[in-house]
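Reopening: structure tokens for the S-adenosylmethionine complex, inputs below.
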Amino acid sequence: MTFTVQDHFFRKAKKHHYLARAVYKLEEIQKRFKILKAGDRVLDLGAAPGSWIQLAGEIVGGAGLIVAIDLKPIEHSFPKFVVTVQGDIYDQGFVETVLHDHVPFNVVLSDMAPSTSGIKAADSARSALLFERAFEVGLWALAPGGTFLAKLFHGSDFHRLLAEAKKHFSQTRVVRPEATRKQSKEIYILALNKKT
Ligand SMILES: C[S@@+](CC[C@H](N)C(=O)[O-])C[C@H]1O[C@@H](n2cnc3c(N)ncnc32)[C@H](O)[C@@H]1O
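Re-run output (same inputs, fresh job):
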């Protein structure tokens, strides 16, 4: 199999000045499920380099808020309604300090992914941990009725994590956007309408 780094979505992102091809995954989910709207307050976990921030920013606009967190610095400069912070989502003190003044959110997004080792079981276990952490933060930070969307490498934890999402949200969907690379195991769990 040939692995094309500069594929169609890469070139399209470059042409439209998006920071990453990942934007087309969120764009498809947005087209299908309308998870973001003008004025929304959005928490974006694993946000670097920032293509989801760009797209979400176009939708929520200046009446909204985006708080974006990543281990890596988010170097692009965004409008004033975007707050970018560098840090580790597992660091509870950091998360509480950053989010304290901004909760609650309407939408929590997580495109977090572990750096991969190539060992499928290990990579999917680490992805599951990131998903669980995003879910924990999401349950704390989301307003009732809120939306949670997070990436997960499909593996043995999938059914347990989906069942957990179903406990706390009225509806769930499992989505594999077109822009996902063919060889990738990633899917997104979308959970709508957080229960009180
Ligand atoms: C696929 S990239 C996100 C791309 C982004 N959605 C965009 O559109 O530009 C995954 C990100 O997850 C971040 N990440 C992984 N583990 C993390 C952690 N423990 N805390 C915060 N961010 C993390 C990585 O640093 C990486 O930038």
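The two ends are 48 Å apart (CA to CA). The mean pLDDT is 95. Marking as resolved unless the reporter disagrees.
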